[in-house]
Design brief:
The chain is an alpha/beta fold. It has four domains: 128 residues, Rossmann fold (3-Layer(aba) Sandwich); 168 residues, 3-Layer(aba) Sandwich (Rossmann fold); 74 residues, Helicase, Ruva Protein, domain 3 (Orthogonal Bundle); 100 residues, Arc Repressor Mutant, subunit A (Orthogonal Bundle). It is 47% helix and 11% strand. Helix 2 links the parallel strand 1 and strand 2. Helix 6 packs across helix 8 and helix 18 packs across helix 19. The longest helix has 35 residues. The radius of gyration is 27 Å and the shape is globular. The N terminus and C terminus are likely disordered.
């Protein structure tokens, strides 16, 4: 019954008697009913509440049911929708089915028939979700298995992953930004006995300090203003599976103490909760910081450090991996050929030599971006000129560091030119930060020393609203990061380089 009680169903109908009847039936069956009497209010309700299913009348004021369904499909392709109509029409039913409605029920409503249809719809939704989860797990397992590299340090890393995966002990992944700490964490999880259970990750550096506790531990209904229902935290979501805490060095001291208690007692308390909740998780953490130095400075608990550091794993930086640089470059070349539907299979000898010589401060993440840009620019082979100037050391002397658009005999006010230069520098720095953060706008704003709203306004100002990845929703799509980044900028070593491999 608890599983049913958490299911929200929106009913959109302009007949009060029908809404009352549906609401009563849904409550008796244990669902959470939400009602709207017109299409516009119904759309707003769907956007706000993210229901599991919608009961939609065809004849509505202002906007009919088919138009509501069309608009729903613009932002949610999977939502279960059951059409209600007092007028049987084969043509309308066909239209509704083409738009992805689950079923078509006629009025007057047969309550028993509706109950059966709802149960079947919920079973179908559950099966679809299971299939999607299995597909995702297969992809993650395949990705986690691709620890690419043959050098001796990577062979040793593979051996450590295999050893760590055998035992349910805490693993601390160490390495520079961009080396791929989450990929290693996934590899440990998917080679372990917990592989069929959830892998849940959280980046401790991106969550505001006042939200960390509720995000980790969850909360009960009424725990604070706005807590309208129970919310499971990441710890509870990872029960029987693995929780990956990235950038653990940024965790606030108060939360460190509570996490230590969870590790020791294997129970947690949700915010506002009075009863302990048993929990069984495998904990993997990662950092690019020197935690021993943080302990000496008093910003990290020593007792927590020893709990997390039961099995340390070190990822070598890319500059220490020799020919793995070219192996990875070929891997990314094949990957982006498929993604961008291109057929560029070669990197010129001169470009290869440049890749091997470069120090790669951004590690594998930076290499990935370089190969992606090179592939976009190249016609048939990635040449030296297709690599960014921080690798080649080249720069167009005529253009200078920034491309100011002026005619040879043009003279313009200094203030006007200054504004243009400032705009180009800002745009350049924002794009670099977005590139290094993997499109994460929260990290980008923090690195640039501005708030999220200011970053949003500047992205709009420079026509970059679609650049990066969305901050809400797991199914959102985004423009591939770095596609529109300038291709002639110099290095930016003051920005971290976040890695995915």
């Amino acid at each position: 019954m608890d599983a049913v009680k958490s299911k929200k169903i929106v009913a959109i109908d302009d007949e009060p008697e029908i809404c009352w009847l549906i609401t009563r039936m849904l409550e008796e069956e244990g669902y959470i009913p939400l009602v709207a009497d017109n299409g516009r209010e119904g759309l707003e309700l769907i956007r706000r509440e993210h229901p599991d299913l919608v009961l939609l009348d065809l004849r509505l004021p202002e906007m009919d049911g088919l138009e509501v369904l069309r608009r729903v499909r613009e932002f949610d392709r999977e939502l279960m929708v059951i059409i209600l109509s007092a007028f049987e029409s084969f043509e309308v039913a066909v239209q509704a089915m083409k738009l992805g409605s689950y079923d078509f029920l006629t009025k007057p409503i047969n309550i028993e028939e509706m109950k059966i249809t709802l149960k079947n719809a919920m079973k179908t939704k559950s099966l679809v979700s299971e299939v999607a989860a299995l597909k995702k797990q297969v992809e993650q397992t395949r990705e986690a298995a691709q620890i690419i590299g043959d050098c001796q340090p990577m062979q040793e890393l593979a051996r450590q992953i295999e050893l760590a995966s055998r035992h349910s002990i805490s693993v601390l992944v160490l390495g520079e930004s961009g080396t791929g700490k989450e990929l290693i964490a996934r590899a440990v999880h998917y080679q372990s006995s917990r592989a069929q259970q959830p892998f849940v990750s959280i980046d401790c550096s991106t969550i505001p300090e006042n939200l960390v506790e509720s995000e980790l531990f969850g909360y009960e209904r009424g725990a604070f203003t706005g807590a309208n229902e129970r919310h499971l935290g990441r710890l509870e979501m990872a029960d029987h599976g693995t929780l990956f805490l990235d950038e653990i060095g940024n965790m606030p001291p108060g939360i460190q103490m509570k996490l230590l208690r969870v590790i020791q007692e294997r129970t947690l308390y949700r915010l506002g909760g009075k009863a302990p909740t048993p929990i069984d998780i495998r904990l993997i953490t990662a950092t690019n910081q020197d935690l021993k130095q943080s302990i000496a400075q008093g910003s990290f608990r020593e007792d927590l450090y020893y709990r997390l550091n039961e099995f340390p794993v070190y990822i070598p930086p890319l500059r220490e991996r020799g020919d793995d640089i070219l192996t990875l470059a070929k891997y990314f070349l094949d990957k982006f050929n498929a993604e961008f539907k291109k057929d560029i299979r070669e990197i010129s000898p001169e470009a290869q030599a440049c890749l091997v010589r470069y120090a790669w401060p951004g590690n594998v993440r930076e290499l990935q971006g370089v190969v992606k840009r090179g592939l976009i620019l190249a016609g048939d082979v990635i040449q030296l000129d297709h690599l960014p100037p921080e690798l080649t050391g080249r720069r167009d002397r005529k253009a200078g560091p920034f491309l100011i658009r002026t005619q040879a005999d043009e003279i313009r006010p200094i203030k006007e030119v200054s504004r243009e230069v400032v705009a180009q520098v800002e745009c350049e720095m924002i794009l670099r930060a977005l590139d290094r953060s993997g499109g994460n706008k929260i990290k980008t704003a923090r690195w640039l020393g501005i708030d999220y709203k200011t970053l949003f306004n500047k992205l709009k100002q420079y026509g970059l609203e679609g650049y990066g990845k969305p901050e809400s929703g797991n199914n959102g799509t985004s423009k591939p990061a770095t596609l529109e980044a300038p291709l002639n900028h110099a290095g930016c070593n003051s920005l971290p380089a976040e890695g995915a491999y």
